[in-house]
Amino acid sequence: MTEINSKTPMEKLTEGGNIYTAGNAREFKTGDWRSVKPIYLSEKCKQCGLCFPVCPDNAIPVNKEQKREDFDYDYCKGCGVCAKVCPFGAIIME
Amino acid sequence: MSIRERLSGNEAAAIAMKQINPDVVAAFPITPSTEIPQYFSTFVSNGSVDTEFVAVESEHSAMSACIGAEAAGARAMTATSANGLSLMWEMIYIASSLRLPIVMSLVNRAVSGPLNIHNDHSDAMGVRDSGWIMLFSESNQEAYDNLLMAHRIAENPNVRLPLMVCQDGFITSHSIENIQLEEDELVKKFVGTYKPEHYLLNDKEPIAVGPLDLQAYLFEHKARTSRSYEKC
User: Fold this and answer.
1) Are strands B52-55 and B176-181 parallel, antiparallel or unpaired?
2) How confident is the model over B151-170, as pLDDT tens digits?
3) Best CA proximity match to B194, nearest among B100, B53, B67, B79
4) A6 contact B CB<8A
5) Structural domains present in chain B
6) Contact (CB<8Å) B98/A18
7) Secondary-structure percent of chain A, ordered helix, strand, coil, rounded to 5
8) Distance separating alpha carbons of residues B147 and B177, to the nearest angstrom
C-alpha cells in the first residue's frame, strides 16, 4: 500500500481507494497541522505521568523505564491538552 | 425444463430474488415496488430462503444496510421506487464508489410532485450518473431474466459495480403476463456463490473501506469506475 502516491496511475489504485493493510496511520504524518508547538522543559518535569494519557495522538513517547521523553513532532497537532494538565509547568506552548 | 407461469412483474422479481437466495435483503415498502419485499418477507417467514431480512425504517437505511452487508462480504439486495430511490440518493453514490455489487429491483415511478404513483423514469434518471449499471425491462419476463443475470454482471471481477434492474411501475409491476421461470437448481448453479477478493469480515486480511479520497485520487477512482462500464 505504501507504494501508492499522488503520481500512481489509476490502474494501479485499489478499488474504491480501499486499504488492504492494517496499522498504516503512522504513515500519515499530521505534525504539519500544528500552529502552536509544545516545548518540554525536562528540568521541571516530575515524571508524574499525567500528560501522555491525554494526548489524542501518540505524540508523547514513554520509554521502558516508564519515563516520558521529548515530543514526537511528526504527529503532535499542537492541541495543548498536555500543557493544560501538567501541574508543574513543564510543558509550555509557543 | 422451464416452468410456464403467469405472474405480475413484482411477483416475477420476488421469485427471482427467492431463487437467487441472497444473504441480506434490506428494503422499505413504497408503491409500486411494495409487493417485492412483501412477497420476499413471506419467503423468509416460511423458510424457502435463508436470507437475513432487515425491515429498516427508511430507504436511506435500506441502502446503508446493503452497503454494510456487501462490504462485509455478503450478497445484498433491495427494492424501491421513486421517492424511495430519492431518499437513497446519498448512499447510491457510496455503493458505486466503493465498488459494491449490490443488486436492486427498481420499479420505476414518477418522482413527486404533483403526486403521482404511476410510471415514468425520472427516478432512475436522477441517479443516471451515479455509477450504477441499469438494466431496463420491457416485460415481466425481462424483469425476471435481468435479475437472474444481475449478480453475474455486477460481481464480475472486471466490473464490480452495483446494478439496478428497472421495470415500469404498474405497467409491468402489477400486470399479469405469461412467463417462463427457470428451475431453482439451475438458477442456483447459474448465479453461483459470491466470493469477493477483499471483504471486511475476513479476519486474515484487516482492510479499511471508504477512506478519505482527496484531490490526487478522486478523479482517478471515478475514471476507473467509468472504465468498468466498458467491460460489462
Assistant:
1) unpaired
2) 999 999 999 999 999 999 99
3) B100
4) yes
5) 3-229 (3.40.50.970)
6) yes
7) 20, 10, 70
8) 17
